[in-house]
Known about the structure:
Blueprint lengths: L1 E6 L9 H18 L3 E4 L13 H6 L9 E4 L2 E2 L5 H14 L4 E6 L4 H7 L6 H17 L6 E2 L4 E2 L25 E5 L6 H8 L2 E4 L5 H17 L10 E8 L3 H10 L4 H15 L19 H8 E4 L1 H15 L4 E6 L5 H29 L1
Parallel strand pairs: 1-2, 1-12, 2-3, 3-5, 4-5, 5-8, 8-9, 9-10, 10-11, 10-12
Antiparallel strand pairs: 6-7
Helix pairs in contact: 1-12, 3-5, 6-7, 11-12
Amino acid sequence: MKIGFFTMPVHRLDRDYTEVLQEDREAIILADKLGYSEAYVGEHVTDAAESITNSMLFQASLIAETKQIKLGTGTTNLSHTHPVLVAAQAAMMDHLLKGRFLFGISPGALESDAEALGIRGIDRNEMFAESIGHILDIWQGEPPYDLEGKHWKISTRETLFPEIGLGPIAKPYQKPHPPIVGTVVAPFSKGVIEMGKKGFLPISANFLLDKWVKTHWTNYAQGCEEGGRPARAEDWRVARSIYVHDDHQTAVDYGKTNERSPYRFYYRQLFTKLKKANRHEVFKPERDFPDEKLTLDYILDELVICGDVNSVVDQLLAFREVTGDFGTLLYAGKDWEDKTLGIRSMELMAEKVMPAVNAAIGQSEAAE
C-alpha cells in the first residue's frame, strides 16, 4: 500500500492568506521528500477556509520544487470553466510535469461558488458529464473539432490555419491522457459505477464511515465489469484523517480533544457546511440515526485515526479489514495549528506507520 496526501485545505479564518498558501506548499514539498507517492489539493472560489482557488495553478507552483511526487487536482471543478480551457491547461500541466500529473475532476459542489459564477440552479452534474466528454474528444481528436452539447459548442473551423499552427488544442504528455481521478462522497455512490465503466480512478473521501467506504469498491468493481475492464485494488485511493505522534496522549489531544485541534476545527467546518446543505447523512451509521446523537465528538471518534505509531497501525489495519484492500492511503492534510506537531505526524506516517502496515499486510497474505 502506498502513502499519498490530500488536502482540501481547511484553515482557520483568522490566518494570513499568504501564510496558509505557503504552508500548503510546504506540506507537499515535505511529502515529496518523505516519499509520498501523490498529492492532491482542492479548490473553491468563495470559501475563506478552503483557500486554494485553482488547484492546477497551485500545483504548477510546485513543479520545480518537487522531484518524484505526482501532483493532482483534487479537484478541477468542471462546471466552473470552459472545457477548452481545462483541456489546454491540463495538457500543458502534464507536459510541464512530464507525466507526474493526475487529473482530478468533479462537478463543483459549493453553492456560493455557483452563485458567484452565475450557474446556481443549473444542473452541474449535466455540465460535468458534457465537459469531460468534450475534454476527452479534444485530446483524442484533431482540429477543427466541431463539438456541440447543451452547454458548450467547440470549433476552430472558421479560423483553422494549419500552415502557421492555428487551430489545434494541446494534447497531454501521457497517452492517451493523464489518469482521471474523481472523489467519491456518497455511500453507495452511483457515480463511482460510471467511473469504473469509463476507466476513471476513485478516491473515497476522508469523512465517510468505514462501512460506507466499502460500498465504493463494490460499486466501482461493478462499473469496471460493465465497462469490460478489470477492477484493480491498486487503482483505489482512500483518504483518512490521521494524526500520529511519538506520545499517544499528545496525538489524542491534537487529533481530537483539544479545542484548538485542527482536526476538530476541520470537522466542525465540514459538519456545519454539510448540515446547512442537508447532506450530513454521510456522517451517520444508518439513515435513521437521530440528529441529536450526531455530535462533533461522535464524528471525531468515528473518523479521526490518532495515537502513537502502534495504535495508528492497529487502527489502519482494522479499517482495512472493513474496507478490503486498496492501493493508496491518502493522508488528509490539516491546518498546521502547531507546525512541529503537523510535520512530525507526516514523518511518522512515512517512516514508521506505513512500513509496519505493509509488513502486517504481507504477513497476513503469506499466511492465507
